[in-house]
Structure formats: structure tokens, C-alpha cells
């Protein structure tokens, strides 16, 4: 066979479901269309702005950066170390059992962790149902076996704890359990302190390694509250991995800013772990892109910029939680939204209802019924709520554009 036919072995791939929603939304001429599909934070005007502290840090970098010469495979180590204090807290950040490197976004952190686990000959990687659609491919592409455990109870819009822990009973020593650190995507659920403890006990008793994906710190209940579960878990288990994304909480999405921390059972193991992380990173991306991490470092190094970043993140978090309260009051089936956290909620509607919302009300979301709560604002939340309430077969209440609840 001639070499020219090599690429004919490749097959067509399914289109990304969310990109299809974006395309349909873009092509819709209706002026009052609502996009709750794409998973980025939006302000009240629907924009995803550059954060104020980021703008100031960028201006500083532009004026002061002296070189763009190569860094190492670890990226900007000062960035990773300062970020460890935000993510893991000062005690774990100082642990000689934990080593971390900068990665291209949270996705890069997950992939590097997956490659490390494959090198370590990990067993199966357990992911919950549902989870972020990219989780399974990331682990599979690294050659790992992915298994699914129960997690979400759609009828109660909460975690089905009995089924969750029950299905994890099939996990074997050497297996890995992927957990969302906070603001679960797509369900908005959060593990309780007792559930984090139970997971830690199970990991210790059964020889499982937790891999925590922390992609939305600060967008649920606040920076420390959102990391409390991860920190409790790491303090209790011998080994764990944490993939971190700054792309949401610093709004640096396209700059691809993340980190991977790996906790080993003993300090001496952290050395080969780190060396392996660097060797793997070298062949994956050689070194991560610098600019976004340099922005985060610049912010975290300067107390004034850091305070400005924290204040804006708190504003974002408060906006999301305000919208959550409004939506939760619309219909009994939406009440759990107030108990959930982060950008996302999974509406109790089927694909036909999602389609009807698009056709009749110009409301755009993926077929799963996942909504990005930050896609709503004072002007459209009333119309959105009324459309969802009618979908749920009830118009018990409606929200006025100003956000006040009115009996229908
Ligand atoms: N984990 C989860 C749960 C996510 O939702 C996302 C982004 N949608 C990521 C990781 C990856 O984030 P990043 O854009 O930093 O790669």
C-alpha cells in the first residue's frame, strides 16, 4: 500500500455537542435569545470580562518583563508555589510529600496526572455519572481503563450517597477515584464534610488513590470553603493528585493556566514522582505557556492585587448565588438549585424539552439540560424562569425582570 493512503485509516468523529449549541445560538436572529450553554462566567451584561487585577498585572508584565526565554518543564515554579497556598492552604503547601508543576489549564493537569498514573500502572479510574464529558477521554487517551460509579440522583437533584459508595465497593486496590473538588460540573452538587471523610476512610481502607479536579475554586462558597474538602482529604490519605484550573477563577480561559499537585505517602517518593512529571510534561508540551501563569504570580505576589482579585471573585460568586436563589424559588423542582453551587445546574427536563425551549423560547442549552446559571441576568431571568416553569408543567410563580418573585 502506498504511503499516501496512511491517513485514510482515520474515521469521522462526532461533533462536539456544545459547539453545535453555540453555532445554533449564533445563527438565531431573535434579539432576546438566551445562552445558558457555554460554561464560562458571564457578568450582568452577558460579557466574560478580563478581571481588574488581571488587567493591572498584565500592564505590569508588559512594562517590566525582561525576557521570554524558555522556562523549564515545570513552568513558573513560583506561580505553582503561591497557588498551592490558595488551593491547598499553607500547611499542605509546605508539605515535603507534595510536589506540583504548572500545566496548560486544568485539562493539561488532568492529562499529566493520567499519564503519571499510567506510568505507575494504576488500575481503573472511576468517574461519576454524570461528569465533565472530557474526563473519560483524557484518561482513556493515556491508556487507562475508565469505570463509572453512581453519583447523581436526578429525582432528588442531589448526591445519591448510598449508590455512590455502593458502586465504589467494586473498586480494587490500585484504582483511582476522580472527584470534583467543588462546584460539580454538570450537577452543581458538592460533597458534604461527612462525605469527604467517608471517601478518605474508604481510600485508606481499600488502597484507592483520589484524584481531585478543582476547576472552580471560589465560585461556589468562597476560596477556603470550596477547598475545604480537598484539604481534609489530602490530610487523611497517603497518596492523592489534585488538578487545578485558574481558567475560571482568574477568568484566564484561553491563556490556559493550571497546575498539578501530587501527594506521595513518603517524602522520598516525591522525588521520583516529580522527575516523572517533568519527563512526561517534556514530551507532552515541553513547557507550559507562560503568560497566564505570570499574571497569576504577579497577582498573588502583590497583596493589593491579590485583594482586588479576591474581591472581584467574591462579586462573581455572589452574582451566581443570587441567580441561584431566584431560580430555586420559581418551581419546587428547581428548589435544589439553591443548595447547589457553582456555574452549573442540571435541569430535570428531557431532550425534547430542551429542543422546545430552543424552538419556542430561544433558550440554548445542551441536550443534557445543563445550564450555566451565569448566562442569566436581571433582564432575562424572568422570561427564562417562566419558560422553564411551563416546561415543568406549572406556572406557580414567575420572576419579574427586576428579580422579584410574583405569584403567577
Ligand atoms: N475540570 C472541569 C470539571 C471542567 O469543567 C473544566 C473546564 N470546563 C476543566 C476541568 C478544564 O479546565 P481548563 O479550561 O482549565 O482546561
Question: Can you put this structure into words, describing what you see?
Answer:
The radius of gyration is 22 Å and the shape is globular. The chain folds into 2 domains: 15-49 and 310-406, Aspartate Aminotransferase, domain 1 (Alpha-Beta Complex), CATH 3.90.1150.10; 70-301, Type I PLP-dependent aspartate aminotransferase-like (Major domain) (Aspartate Aminotransferase, domain 2, 3-Layer(aba) Sandwich), CATH 3.40.640.10. The model is unreliable at 401-408 (pLDDT under 50). The chain contains 14 helices and 15 strands. The longest helix has 26 residues, at 303-328. Strands 2-10-9-8-7-3-4 form a 7-stranded mixed sheet, with helices on both faces. Strands 1-12 form a two-stranded parallel ribbon. A two-stranded antiparallel sheet has the order 5-6. It is of the alpha/beta class and 408 residues long. The structure holds 4'-deoxy-4'-aminopyridoxal-5'-phosphate. 4'-deoxy-4'-aminopyridoxal-5'-phosphate binds next to helix 5.
Mean pLDDT figure: 94
Q: Cα distance, first to last residue?
A: 71 Å
Query: Beta fraction of the residues?
Result: 5-15%
Strand arrangement across the biggest beta sheet: 2-10-9-8-7-3-4
- Bound ions, cofactors and other small molecules, one mention each: 4'-deoxy-4'-aminopyridoxal-5'-phosphate
Strand tally is 15
Helix count from the secondary structure assignment: 14
Can you tell me the number of structural domains?
2
Uncertain stretches: 401-408
Round the Cα radius of gyration to an integer and report it.
22 Å
The H-and-E topology, N to C, reads as HEHHHEHEHEEEHEHEHEEHHHEHEEHEE
CATH superfamily annotation of the largest domain: Type I PLP-dependent aspartate aminotransferase-like (Major domain)
Tell me, what's the shape?
globular
Summarize the main sheet. 7 strands, mixed
Percent helix: 40-55%
Q: What is the highest CATH level, the class of the largest domain? A: Alpha Beta
Q: What fold name stands as the CATH topology of the largest domain?
A: Aspartate Aminotransferase, domain 2
CATH architecture of the largest domain: 3-Layer(aba) Sandwich
Structural class by sheet pairing and helices: alpha/beta
Amino acid at each position: 500500500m502506498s504511503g499516501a493512503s496512511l491517513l485514510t485509516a482515520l474515521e469521522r468523529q462526532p461533533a462536539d455537542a456544545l459547539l453545535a449549541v453555540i453555532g445554533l445560538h449564533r445563527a438565531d436572529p431573535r434579539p432576546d435569545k438566551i445562552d445558558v450553554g457555554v460554561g464560562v462566567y458571564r457578568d450582568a451584561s452577558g460579557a466574560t470580562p478580563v478581571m481588574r487585577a488581571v488587567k493591572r498585572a498584565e500592564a505590569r508584565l508588559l512594562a517590566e518583563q525582561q525576557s521570554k526565554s524558555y522556562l523549564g518543564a515545570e513552568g513558573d515554579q513560583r506561580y505553582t508555589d503561591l497557588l498551592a497556598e490558595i488551593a491547598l492552604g499553607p500547611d499542605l503547601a509546605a508539605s515535603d510529600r507534595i510536589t506540583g508543576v504548572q500545566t496548560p489549564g486544568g485539562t493539561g493537569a488532568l492529562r499529566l496526572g493520567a499519564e503519571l498514573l499510567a506510568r505507575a500502572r494504576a488500575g481503573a479510574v472511576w468517574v461519576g455519572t454524570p461528569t465533565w464529558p472530557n474526563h473519560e477521554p483524557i484518561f482513556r487517551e493515556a491508556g487507562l481503563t475508565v469505570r463509572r460509579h453512581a453519583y447523581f440522583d436526578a429525582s432528588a437533584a442531589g448526591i445519591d450517597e448510598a449508590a455512590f459508595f455502593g458502586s465504589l465497593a467494586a473498586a480494587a486496590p490500585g484504582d483511582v477515584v476522580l472527584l470534583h473538588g467543588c462546584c460539580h460540573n454538570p450537577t452543581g452538587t458538592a460533597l458534604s464534610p461527612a462525605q469527604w471523610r467517608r471517601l478518605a476512610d474508604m481510600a485508606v481502607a481499600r488502597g484507592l488513590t483520589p484524584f481531585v479536579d478543582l476547576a472552580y475554586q471560589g465560585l461556589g462558597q468562597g476560596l477556603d470553603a470550596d477547598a475545604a474538602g480537598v484539604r481534609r482529604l489530602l490530610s487523611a490519605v497517603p497518596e492523592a493528585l489534585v488538578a487545578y484550573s485558574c481558567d475560571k477563577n482568574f477568568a484566564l480561559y484561553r491563556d490556559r493556566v493550571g497546575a498539578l499537585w501530587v501527594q506521595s505517602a513518603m517524602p522520598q517518593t516525591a522525588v521520583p514522582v516529580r522527575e516523572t512529571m517533568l519527563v512526561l510534561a517534556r514530551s507532552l508540551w515541553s513547557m507550559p505557556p507562560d503568560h497566564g501563569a505570570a499574571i497569576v504570580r504577579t497577582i498573588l505576589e502583590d497583596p493589593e492585587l491579590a485583594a482586588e482579585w479576591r474581591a472581584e471573585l467574591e462579586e462573581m460568586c455572589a452574582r451566581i448565588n443570587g441567580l441561584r436563589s431566584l431560580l430555586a424559588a420559581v418551581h419546587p423542582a428547581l428548589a435544589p438549585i439553591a443548595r447547589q453551587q457553582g456555574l452549573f445546574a442540571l435541569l430535570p427536563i428531557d431532550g425534547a424539552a430542551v429542543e422546545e425551549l430552543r424552538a419556542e423560547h430561544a433558550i440554548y442549552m445542551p441536550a443534557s439540560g445543563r445550564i450555566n446559571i451565569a448566562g442569566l441576568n436581571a433582564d432575562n431571568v424572568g422570561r427564562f424562569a417562566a419558560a422553564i416553569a411551563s416546561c415543568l408543567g406549572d406556572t406557580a410563580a414567575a420572576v419579574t425582570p427586576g428579580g422579584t418573585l410574583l405569584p403567577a
